[in-house]
């Protein structure tokens, strides 16, 4: 096998592992930028202390429904549990569902890419076997 085939095999394996990790997270993710920083800060203002260094937010679903995982810029994470009485977090939940990315869909894309890479590697191996 060529060196590039080994690299492709490593990429395929790593993308499968990353996809399984994303499947276990179960949720919607939104990266915080200048457009949505005010919406997130206003919703979380009374719930957490520092809202200015939030980098991304994951809204859980499935087994993790009701969880709001907040990632700060310097590695700190916080988990809030959304209940029915939290009006501001309900608005944030709706915003994340509308504008966020589903982690399961990202996982399926990674599985598809790794599947294509593995099919390519199998075809290359079959062609090399026929030639020699």
| Overall geometric form | elongated
Measure the end-to-end span: 13 Å
Low-confidence stretches: none
Could you tell me the strand content as a percent range? 15-25%
- Strands, count: 5
- Which structural class do the helices and strands define? alpha+beta
Tell me, rounded to a whole number, the average pLDDT: 85
Main sheet record? 5 strands, antiparallel
With strands numbered from the N-terminus, the spatial order across the biggest sheet is 4-3-2-1-5
Number of helices: 4
Radius of gyration: 20 Å
Order of helices and strands: HEHEEEHEH
| Share of helix, binned | 55-70%
Q: Can you walk through the features of this model?
A:
The protein is α+β, with helices and mostly antiparallel strands and 132 residues long. Helices cover 55% and strands 19% of the residues. The chain has four helices and five strands, in the order αβαβββαβα. It has a five-stranded antiparallel β-sheet with strand order 4-3-2-1-5. Strand 3 (67-72) and strand 4 form a beta hairpin. It is elongated. The two termini are 13 Å apart. The model has no long low-confidence stretch (mean pLDDT 85).
């Amino acid at each position: 096998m060529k060196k590039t085939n080994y690299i492709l095999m490593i990429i395929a394996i790593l993308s499968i592992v990353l996809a399984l990790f994303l499947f276990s997270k179960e949720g919607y993710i939104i990266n915080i930028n200048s457009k949505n920083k005010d919406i997130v800060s206003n919703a979380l203002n009374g719930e957490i202390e520092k809202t200015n260094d939030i980098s991304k937010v994951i809204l859980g679903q499935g087994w993790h429904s009701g969880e709001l995982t907040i990632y700060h810029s310097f590695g700190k994470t916080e988990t809030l549990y959304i209940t029915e009485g939290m009006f501001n977090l309900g608005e944030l939940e709706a915003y994340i569902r509308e504008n966020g990315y589903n982690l399961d869909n990202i996982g399926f894309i990674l599985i598809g890419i790794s599947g294509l890479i593995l099919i390519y590697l199998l075809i290359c191996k079959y062609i090399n076997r026929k030639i020699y």
